[in-house]
Amino acid sequence: MSVGFDHIDTKECLARKIPVGFTPDILTDATAELTIALLLATSRRLLEAASEVKSGGWGTWSPLWMCGSSLSGSTVGIVGMGRIGEAVSQRIQSFGLSHLLYFSRNRKKDVERRLGAEFVSFEQLLEDSDFIIVCCTLSKDTNHLFNSWAFKKMKNSAVLINSSRGGVINQEDLYSALCKGEIRAAGLDVTSPEPLPTDHPLLTLPNCVVLPHIGSATVETRTAMAVLAAKNLLAGLKNQPLLSQVC
Ligand SMILES: O=CC(=O)O
């Protein structure tokens, strides 16, 4: 009951002739919505600000108190232009960006035409983006794609958002980059491991927002995923092809 299948040994399933189903497409919108919510929560420091209200830190008005950074006029870089990357790109258009960059396994000319996105190298995306949104799958090529080398290339003011898989980011390097001010903030809906231990250093940082992998967590989406997973299971039991089959 998920779109990702990096937690399943598909080679072994294939060898044992065990069909594997997944639930693509139906969680794209919910995950894109959550990604935008996490982006705004991180860039506008919503969690920090809300906790100031509760702790009594909200004092008299001060010009730069709780200031974040604007999406309007900014350059956004999307890493991974699959279903979710495209849905995030569509939604983010409405913020009046100056540039939408993307880096992906394959170039997507139709997305470039429809959304005005510009295909760039990973390095250029790191150097030019004010906000970077990770939407790629986890593979041997994307494992720890974001490491100390990548953080050093990014702007000091950059905000990194990840709603794909925790393994795409080297979390030790992220912690160090956030502490040293190599990047400004990070918003993670996914971590490695999950759940993230409550004493993890990232949880001590005010500029790191961590959510418990809730990308697809709307009642409508989880219900649709459950129905599709059940249909896959019933088809499998009847030795029929699954409605959506990984292998
Ligand atoms: O991350 C969520 C999923 O793979 O369904």
TrEMBL record:
InterPro entries: D-isomer_2-hydroxyacid_DH, D-isomer_2_OHA_DH_cat_dom, D-isomer_DH_CS, D-isomer_DH_CS1, D-isomer_DH_NAD-bd, NAD(P)-bd_dom_sf. One of its GO terms (molecular function) is NAD binding. The keyword ATP-binding does not apply. Residues 36-215 form the D-isomer specific 2-hydroxyacid dehydrogenase NAD-binding domain. The keyword Oxidoreductase applies. Keywords: Oxidoreductase. GO terms for cellular component: cytosol. Residues 1-246 form the D-isomer specific 2-hydroxyacid dehydrogenase catalytic domain. Belongs to the D-isomer specific 2-hydroxyacid dehydrogenase family. This is Glyoxylate reductase/hydroxypyruvate reductase. It comes from Holothuria leucospilota.
